[in-house]
Amino acid sequence: MKKYVTLLAVSLAAIVALGFLVSDIGAKEDERQKINAGRQINIESPAQTSQWQRYFPRQFDGWKKTKDSREVVDMIAKWPALAIVWAGYPFSKDYNAPRGHYYSVADNINTLRVGAPSEKVDSPLPTACWTCKSPDVVRLMETKGDLGFYTGKWNKWGDEIVNAIGCYDCHKTDTRELKVGRAYVDQGLRAAGMPVFADSTHQTKRDLVCAQCHSEYYFRPTPNGEATAMVVTLPWKNGLGAEEQMSYYNDGKNFPDGKPFKDYENKLSKAPIVKAQHPDYELHLSGIHGKKGVSCADCHMPYKQEGATKFSDHQVQSPLATMDRSCMPCHRESEAKLKSILKEKYDRKETLFGLAVNNLAAAHLEAQKAWEIGASEAEMSAPLNLIREGQWRWDYAVASHGGFFHAPDETLFILAKANDYAQQARAALKITLAKHGAADYVVPDFGTKEKAQKLAGWDMAQLIDDKKKFKSEIVPAWNEQAKEKGLLDEKIRDYDDDVASWFGKNK
Description:
Blueprint: H1 2-36, H2 57-64, H3 75-78, H4 81-85, H5 104-110, H6 135-144, H7 146-150, H8 184-192, H9 202-211, E1 218-224, E2 227-233, H10 242-250, E3 264-265, E4 272-273, H11 280-286, H12 288-291, H13 296-300, E5 303-306, E6 309-312, H14 323-326, H15 335-372, H16 377-399, H17 403-406, H18 408-435, H19 449-455, H20 460-484
Antiparallel strand pairs: 1-2, 3-4, 5-6
Helix pairs in contact: 15-16, 15-18, 16-18
């Protein structure tokens, strides 16, 4: 009898425990459905990311951790040749590796590239240089129209664009569905003969929300009344590869003036250069992960599990920081082995990067010397075009910082071609230099950032003084005006915004 009583007691205890477990699972499932269900986001300013917190607290907490990626890496100090190949273009003043999304507005304000605008002096760059930096851009495009947003100089929106990349860049406010708030994405997809965002699969959409900002683009001059709007345009008409995009830029039929496109003319060599931006999406598609249907979000925003709730980790960062969730669900090697493979790929990319950029820099300086000693335009046409072709491929391969990971074979192939073009240019220039009595010309030393920027013709001390004045006089006024308009999300402005390579501090 005692045996049956004990068995009954144990059974009852198990039933009670199971009841609690079912109740807990049910509660967590209710929570999961509540979090994942579409809902109206009733906030006045969806560009203020903190206002999404009450609806999506887990995602918000992840997003805010993007501020942990705060280190500034001065790329010109690491590779001084950058100042030479970009001479005459703002990137040669200042170029840092990208930080976390949390700093997108601060870093755009701090960079020397946008100049030091004042009440009397405009920025040298157009408003389009805000395009990928803030959900306020989406708001302005909706209220001002694309041409209204793209018309004017960068400082035009200084008191309007104040919130870092956030929820409204990628999500609708009436549901949690993905969106692209920038019209040029669908325009580029149509030009490429690809389905537009609305007609794409959900997995593709998880790429395209990133492609809004992580793609190659150029500013297309577009009439807007008596003014000209510089409209962000994706050069995908001929395809998404480096070769296809270069063929687009080289075809004058694609441009209003009937000439091949150039972003700038190198100040030293006079070569017409196309500055690659950050073709992460395009290179990703050409790599094994892209070809297998792995999306950007799968690796950079891997799923997290809390109880029964599964959600995307919005701390967008390198997959190497979350390998257990980003890599190991698919790969059977150890984390250590995968890291060693990636290090080999990275080292090979860095080697070819260095060879190509240093040869390109030398070619620019040799071309400058050739002009100085009387070379003709007919003599310079071929080598300058070789520089243009080589620099495009070099820049395309490395402007996508993760190219060595996304598409290592394609990245190395493009860099090899870039170096070949650079060497061809140098060989042609050697002949021209010899013809004009300068066979013994030796390229000046550009081995440090200071030397390279001096050769590029920048007065860095003056640029920095002007920037400090801008930071102390103009930026505080912008922030006050943004507060008065109710635009500034002060709850998340808890960072030191005087962090930049030229400040002499990087954390």
